[in-house]
Specification:
Blueprint lengths: L4 H14 L29 E6 L2 E8 L2 E12 L11 E4 L5 E3 L5 H6 L6 E4 L8 H8 L4 E2 L8 H7 L3 E4 L9 H5 L5 E3 L8 H5 L2 H6 L4 H22 L7 E4 L1 E3 L2 E5 L4 H8 L3 E2 L9 E4 L1 H8 L4 E3 L6 H7 L7 H5 L2 E3 L20 H12 L13 E2 L3
Helix pairs in contact: 8-13
Length: 382
């Protein structure tokens, strides 16, 4: 997804008003290159660290299930003959050919101008990005099946320099098989960050493997600046409406935990959320009765799956009790959907938390952003 120029310019103006090759050569010892680390260059993300030691960039990815340990450490070098410390994976940069297994990884590559380095993807039928869908249709990008059962033979046919993936469980059975072929596995764990800015900051992780850290720093600082300006704007709101967020599936309703990125989003947008004091970072499974008890008087409902109020009632007639239903203040994140049903909310939005925050503020406090148009969200019709 590439931001429309008019949207980008307009959004920037709105905020101003509201508140700114691989090389060969002789072997080189890493001990000759080590200098004082540049320090912690990651401000919001908790899942990885990034530092420089002379000609080596070191990235360590934390273990989400044991944050005192790391699941991987990478030493990025431009000279393949540079020696690196033991206990990590040497990766020669810039990467030229990348297999990507998660849809949330496309947008960072788009933003740093490396979308066309992708040579293989999982679940190609679910792609929102128009350019990438076209590349798949033209057989320039190989489909690898489902990301939980990747086709290893087709992956090898793609001849990637590296595989950008996500570890969903403590034991990854596919990574050792890929590493055995001499292909580095790069773990992008942005989905486990508890804040929107933390998730977006993983663009620095991705960009480092392309030698584009300065570009990523600049892009992220712009996003963070706009996000924080919007947060400050929302703090000026005269009221703090209560929100309900979530949807039902087979009788169970899933709502954000109190330490999830969605809960932090609502707080930053100037809203009250019933589970704000909860300690979970993921979703909370609830019965409809619990939802009714805790959220029937909520002023707004965000994250509905339906497109109309009549569809909401058809799925669960008791929703007519909700104040948000009676007022019609129910929103989904379906404004940007492709003909194949894919949603940019689940793909590009992770890199643009400023736009998502603006959407939520627009719904809750329209007087603060009178000229802003929704980007990801839309209000359900009748």
């Amino acid at each position: 997804m590439k931001l429309n120029r008019t949207v980008a310019i307009g959004f920037a103006a709105l905020l101003l008003c509201a508140t700114a090759c691989r090389r060969s050569g002789p072997a080189v010892s890493h001990s000759q290159l080590v200098v004082a680390s540049a320090g912690n260059e990651v401000k919001y993300a908790r899942g990885f660290t990034l530092s420089h030691q002379g000609g080596i960039t070191r990235i360590s990815v934390r273990n989400p299930w044991d944050t005192a340990s790391f699941i991987a450490t990478y030493y990025l070098v431009r000279n393949a003959r540079v020696r690196v410390p033991a206990g990590g994976r040497k990766v020669v940069v810039p990467v030229r050919r990348m297999v990507v297994t998660s849809s949330t990884h496309y947008e960072p590559l788009q933003l740093i101008g490396e979308l066309y380095s992708i040579v293989g993807v999982c679940n190609p039928d679910r792609i929102y990005n128009t350019e990438l869908r076209r590349a798949v249709a033209q057989n320039k990008v190989i489909g690898l099946g489902d990301n939980f059962s990747m086709n290893r033979e087709r992956l090898l046919l793609a001849r990637p320099d590296a595989v950008l993936t996500t570890q969903y469980a403590a034991n990854d059975k596919y990574a050792p098989l890929i590493e055995a072929e001499g292909i580095p596995v790069l773990y992008n764990q942005e989905w486990q960050e508890p804040s929107l800015l933390g998730r977006a900051e993983w663009i620095k992780f991705v960009a480092a493997f392309y030698g584009k850290e300065k570009l990523a720093d600049s892009l992220f600082e712009g996003v963070a600046h706009r996000y924080l300006a919007l947060k400050a704007l929302a703090a000026k709101a005269k009221n703090r409406p209560q929100v309900f967020s979530g949807c039902g599936f087979r009788g169970t309703w899933y709502v954000p935990g109190g330490r999830s990125y969605m809960a932090s989003l609502y707080a930053d947008a100037g809203a009250r959320y019933f589970y704000a004091g909860d300690s979970h970072t993921g979703s909370l499974p609830l019965s409809f009765e619990s939802v009714l008890c805790n959220f029937s008087q909520a002023d707004y409902w965000f994250g509905a799956q339906e497109n109309t109020l009549s569809e909401v009632l058809a799925g669960e007639p008791r929703c007519s009790i909700f104040r948000s239903y009676r007022s019609g203040r129910i929103y989904n994140y379906n404004r940007r959907r492709s003909p194949n049903g894919s949603s940019d909310f689940w793909e590009g939005c992770i890199s643009h938390p400023d736009l998502l925050l603006a959407d939520v503020i627009k719904a809750l406090h329209p007087e603060l952003l009178p000229h802003y148009q929704f980007y990801y969200m839309q209000q359900l019709g009748r």
